[in-house]
Design a protein that fits this description.
The chain is α/β, with parallel strands linked by helices. The protein has eleven helices and eight strands. It folds into two domains: 3-168, Rossmann fold; 177-266, ProC C-terminal domain-like (ProC C-terminal domain-like fold), CATH 1.10.3730.10. The protein has helices spanning 10-20, 37-46, 56-60, 75-82, 102-110, 149-160, 173-200, 205-226, 230-237, 243-253, 256-266; strands spanning 3-6, 30-33, 51-53, 65-68, 92-95, 124-128, 138-145, 163-167. An eight-stranded mixed β-sheet has the order 3-2-1-4-5-6-7-8, with helices on both faces. The structure holds NADP nicotinamide-adenine-dinucleotide phosphate (NAP).
Length: 270
């Protein structure tokens, strides 16, 4: 499989380097384009086999999947530039641009207002990664239109090399963004709150943050290890009449669960 990535900024660069380090696509089958020579050099220094170019049209030649990794307001310009060079019979167009849905991508590509019923000239794939993609720990969502199960599976397999990836219906993409992209901030706000608590209990701030971060890693690892329900793991540390249940109940009295759910709802576009 050959991949073209348009835009070698934070996300495009992380994708190129992360995919090159994986097994799904060989580094020499990844081409990246960007107007900034510095950005391209930064990629070449770390993985010389990745092909880099300042020419977007040359970048997509021979690619199976074209991934747009430019800012949302540049997507139309880039699509207009690429359109004459896209081989609609063999190439799929994917985008990670924040907030740009498949209807919008289809409208930009076809030049006509698109709805889910609009016939598309090629598969369109929307990808929502989060900032942890730089450490190959992204939670990435994939949704598509005019695609095939094989193509969807290939994209999920690609992004599984950069963390975890999940195919979802497009109607869930805003919820996915709230949970996993805004979610990075929400998880880190918990880290800050717990760190402040740790300082009050007597730890230095750097110690407290390290303790909280490793405790979160441990909690996530426990969930991953046996796929168990969070509540089952909580039960293991809540001795009847013990200290943990007192702490949990005090947090709930202060509105912990309600606050988190309210925050997630507030993260959904109106
Ligand atoms: N950052 C996140 O957490 C995150 C998460 C999910 C999705 N996204 C989405 O990912 C996309 C990229 O975000 P980012 O943070 O990686 O932005 P970024 O660091 O600014 O990267 C965008 C890159 O595109 C380059 N570029 C500008 N015009 C171009 C053109 N016409 N052709 C090719 N490349 C061009 C830019 O070069 P110059 O710097 O020289 O202009 C820059 O290197 C955005 O749409 C964003 O919404 C971001």
């Amino acid at each position: 499989m050959k991949i073209a990535i348009i835009g070698a900024g934070n996300m495009g660069g992380a994708m190129a380097l992360g995919l090159a380090a994986g097994t799904q696509v060989r580094p020499e089958y990844i081409t990246v384009s960007d107007p900034s020579a510095d950005n391209l050099e930064a990629i070449s220094r770390r993985q010389p086999a990745i092909v880099t170019t300042a020419d977007n049209t040359a970048c997509i030649s021979g690619a199976d999947i074209i991934i747009l990794a430019v800012k949302p307001w540049l997507v139309q310009t880039v699509i207009d530039e690429l359109r004459p060079a896209i081989d609609f019979s063999s190439q799929a167009l994917a985008s990670i641009a924040g907030g740009v849905g498949i209807d919008q991508l289809a409208t930009m590509l076809t030049g006509k207002p698109a709805t889910p019923a609009t016939p598309l000239p090629c598969p369109i794939i929307r990808i929502v990664p989060n900032t942890a993609i730089a450490l190959a720990e992204s939670m990435t969502f994939v949704s598509s239109r005019a695609s095939t199960p094989e193509l969807d599976n290939s994209v999920v397999a690609l992004f599984s090399e950069l963390g975890q990836a999940m195919l979802v219906e497009e109607r869930l993409m805003n919820a996915a963004t709230a949970l996993a992209s805004c979610g990075i901030a929400y998880a880190l706000r918990y880290v800050r709150a717990a760190t402040e608590g740790g300082v009050e209990l007597g730890f230095r701030a750097d110690q407290a943050q390290r303790i909280v971060a490793q405790t979160l890693r441990g909690a996530a690892a426990l969930l991953d290890a046996d796929g168990s329900h969070a509540e089952a793991e909580i039960d293991k540390v809540t001795t009847p009449g013990g200290l943990t249940i007192r702490g949990l109940n005090a947090m709930e009295e202060a509105g912990f669960t309600a606050s988190v759910i309210r925050g997630l709802r507030a993260s959904m576009p109106k």
